[in-house]
Design brief:
This protein has 2 domains: about 10-260, NAD(P)-binding Rossmann-like Domain (Rossmann fold, 3-Layer(aba) Sandwich); about 295-510, N-(1-d-carboxylethyl)-l-norvaline Dehydrogenase, domain 2 (Orthogonal Bundle). The chain contains 21 helices and 15 strands. Helix 10 crosses helix 17 and helix 12 (about 325-345) packs across helix 16 (about 390-400). The longest helix has 24 residues, at about 290-315. Strand 14 (about 430) and strand 15 (about 440) form a beta hairpin. By secondary structure, it is of the alpha/beta class. The chain has a 6-stranded parallel sheet. It has helices at about 15-30, 40-45, 45-55, 75-80, 120-125, 160-170, 190-205, 210-220, 240-245, 290-315, 320-325, 325-345, 355-365, 375-380, 385-390, 390-400, 405-420, 445-455, 465-470, 475, 485-500, and strands at about 30-35, 60-65, 85-95, 95-105, 110, 130-135, 180-185, 220-225, 225-230, 255, 260-265, 285, 425, 430, 440. One of its GO terms (molecular function) is tagaturonate reductase activity.
């Protein structure tokens, strides 16, 4: 039986009286947060957090949303039509239990298109109540590109808009040190706060802003580096009508996120007074140094993704959850993380092994989320570059600790080389799975050409010699991997074993040389 079509759109009138009163109260409070970014991630991460703070009475104030690019105007219009409301669905595994819940998020008190309402945007920057600016403009949004300053016309870049807004604020408050802002870029860019400040100062110099202003930017505004982690999958296209029927209203901004969330912010815990996240029970940490948390995520979560992907694709698997539910693949990934990756971090992290193991367990749970279909083919993009950053440091550190070769990571490297056993065709580069199925490869064309040429010339040559050529090619790895004792022979052994394995019995993972 088909679903009845729900016509009513989410509005304040859809809410129960208590919820409606709370949402109306938000709209009456001053805007304390300017949010640059209308996308799924901020709405499923930051705005949800602000709502958690608000529900517990720890935060009063509204959020004004502005889009960073002209293309975001339609989402802002939808937000206005829905009285600033949208629904967040949280679903997945939490401590082994299935979680699925929905909630209307009512923290957005206004939506301003800076390309249409430039003066309104600048007025926000001159508001005495404004305290925080948060952004997610993608990594490409935090890049300096020279722009002309044309009065009355919005800049195209977010850093340019921010520089001009801060200058207006500085002028409005005569350089008052107490009117500096807490600025939190949430883009997935290492040390994004530092980069955003650098861009702001560069624009300020380009446009001839005063030294006093630039000193105020440096001294009285806090550009914080942070690390965010939550999978927000966005609008559930195939399930939307079912959700509308369940909710009793249509929500064109319906958003879906996993239960897990993590945010490390490089700053003193006293900043909780402005942003009471820990106080509200959220998994947020004010830290002196982000590097241990960045390394933890790159080596364990990202490393596990990169480790499993080539091998799993070669054996015909399609998505991450399928890997984790496979008896041998799942055990292989967990053993590699716990017995090789975590031990290799002993000299480079201040985090205890027990903390790293707990984090690893949360990663396995996230990988097993039955509501997320994370395709391995998407993760496979640029796997060579990813391996160098995510897994090669673990291999090298493990060897330097005197532990010998980390066998599971070496198996993963063998799988990577087999995955990149490619040939160039009229339509691009192509590989073949162990089951004989063709797949395209998308990576640096120059690197793919090197791999294709090396594998193409392998006929009539001993496999060990081909492996040596691949591992010693510094263009592929940045240095010669042949220097690692026993690596060429180990990769050769596992490549031979890999060709004899099958999807039904992945004995390859159980073997040790």
């Amino acid at each position: 039986m088909g679903l009845d079509i729900v016509e009513q759109r989410l509005k304040l009138s859809c809410l129960q009286s208590t919820d409606r009163q709370g949402a109306e109260e938000v709209r009456r409070t001053p805007v304390k947060i300017l949010q640059i970014g209308e996308g799924n991630f901020l709405r499923g991460f930051f705005d949800w957090m602000i709502n958690e703070c608000r529900k517990q009475g720890n935060f009063e104030g509204g959020v004004a949303i502005c889009q960073p690019r002209r293309s975001g105007s339609s989402k802002l219009e939808t937000l206005k039509m829905q009285d600033g409301l949208y629904t967040l669905v949280i679903r997945g595994l939490e401590q082994g239990k299935l979680v699925e819940k929905s909630e209307v998020i009512p923290v957005v008190s206004s939506a301003i298109d800076p390309y249409q309402d430039w003066e309104d945007f600048l007025s926000l920057g001159q508001s005495p109540e404004l305290e925080i600016i948060v952004s997610n403009t993608t990594e490409a949004g935090l890049i300096y590109r020279p722009e002309l300053l044309v009065e009355g016309t919005p800049m195209e870049s977010y850093p340019g808009k921010l520089a001009y807004l801060l200058h207006k604020r500085f002028t409005a408050f005569a350089g008052d040190p107490g009117k500096g802002l807490l600025i939190l870029p949430l883009e997935l860019l290492e040390r994004g706060g530092d980069e955003l400040k650098r861009c702001v100062l560069q624009y300020s110099q380009d446009w001839g802003f005063s030294t006093d202003f630039m000193e105020w930017v440096e001294r009285d505004n806090r550009f914080l580096n942070s690390l965010v982690d939550r999978i927000v999958t966005g609008y559930p296209e195939s399930e939307a009508e079912a959700w509308f029927a369940k909710l009793g209203y249509r929500d064109e901004l319906l958003n879906v996120a996993e239960p897990y969330h993590f945010w490390a912010i490089e700053g003193e815990v006293e900043l909780e007074q402005q942003l009471p996240l820990q106080k509200s029970g959220l998994n947020v940490h004010w830290v002196q140094d982000l590097r241990p948390f960045q390394q933890r995520k790159v080596r364990i979560l990202n490393g596990a993704h990169t480790l499993m992907t080539p091998l799993a694709l070669l054996h015909g698997l399609v998505h991450v959850r399928e890997v984790m539910e496979h008896a041998k693949f799942g055990a292989y990934v967990a053993a590699a993380v716990e017995q090789e990756i975590i031990p290799s971090m002993s000299r480079t992290t201040s985090l205890e092994p027990s903390e790293l193991l707990l984090y690893a367990e949360s990663v396995y749970e996230r990988f097993s989320n039955p509501f997320i279909r994370h395709n391995l083919a998407d993760i496979a993009l640029n796997s060579l570059a990813k391996f160098k950053v995510r897994l090669l440091p673990s291999i090298e550190a493990y060897v330097e600790l005197g532990r010998g070769l980390p066998e599971r990571l070496i198996q993963g490297l063998a799988g990577l080389l087999r995955y990149y056993k490619v040939q160039e065709t009229a339509t691009g580069f192509q590989g073949t799975t162990l089951l004989g199925e063709k797949y395209p490869l998308h990576d640096d064309p120059a690197l793919l050409s090197i791999l294709a040429a090396t594998w193409h010339g392998a006929e009539g040559r001993a496999l060990v010699d081909t492996v040596a050529m691949l591992l010693n090619n510094e263009d592929l790895w940045g240095s010669s991997l042949g220097r690692i004792e026993g690596l060429v022979e180990a990769i050769t052994y596992y490549l031979e074993e890999l060709e004899g394995s099958s999807y039904e019995a992945v004995d390859f993972f159980a073997r040790k040389r």
